[in-house]
Amino acid sequence: MSIYEQQPFATSFVDSSSTLRRERLEKLQKARLYLCTDARLSRGDLESFLDEAYSGGVDIIQLRDKKISVQQELAALEVLKKVARRHDKLFAVNDRADVAALMGADIFHRGQDDLSAVQARRLLGADVLVGASTHGVSQGQEAAADKNIDYFACGPVWPTPTKPGRAATGVEYLEQVAQFAGQKPWFAIGGVNVDTVSEVCQAGASRIVVVRALTEAADVRSAAKQLKGALEVV
Fold first, then answer.
1. pTM for the whole thing?
2. pLDDT tens digits, residue range 107-135?
3. How many CA atoms lie within 13 A of 216 on its CB side?
4. Which of these, 222, 203, 202, lies nearest to 213 by C-alpha position?
5. Closest C-alpha among 81, 64, 122, 131 to residue 98
6. pLDDT tens digits for range 77-95
7. What's the CA gap between 158 and 154, in Å, rounded?
8. I need a surface site. Which of 37, 40, 117, 175 has the fewest CB within 10 A?
9. Containing H/E element for 131?
10. Contact 39, 72 (CB under 8 A)
11. Would you give the distance in Å from CA 137 to the centre of its chain?
């Protein structure tokens, strides 16, 4: 076992919250609609796009763009942070805990091959919320039980070009998560859009992560409102 994994933070470190952590957790508990977007460099409309998404009811926006440099990522995150603060909403950094620390992110989201939740906590402290991607029951159960993880995403429910080669979990995984997640927030992800949102809700999900449903929408605000409306009746 690595020295970085030997001792997780004591429960009191995570649970004895600062005001900032409590405020972030309250927003997370209320969150229903989570958006992942690239930096939209080819369109040059990142700020207006983010404004429209938050205005339409998106609760959390994560920047996820594997094709840009670190400096470009930092510049895009400055825009995201500014817009998130303007709307009093949460913003997330993907994969890079060092970038999350540098940007003062509300959320650091880790994949299965990134820093562990324990390692992220050692770097970020208790105030930053930590999310995790899960792709099956064992990973989901681990995330649900991990006190260093504040929420987790479940999927991809359907095959999606944003995760090429990743096998779909199907809605059956969501049905299983609904049985063991308890009070910890979790989000269905992967192929979720206005046509499929009812199916994930029927499987037990009340929160979703979307990508193309908003990044490719002609009217971002209206599309977000439609998705949020479908979730609010759950």
1. 0.92
2. 999 998 888 999 999 999 999 999 999 99
3. 7
4. 222
5. 122
6. 999 999 999 999 999 999 9
7. 11
8. 175
9. strand 129-134
10. yes
11. 19
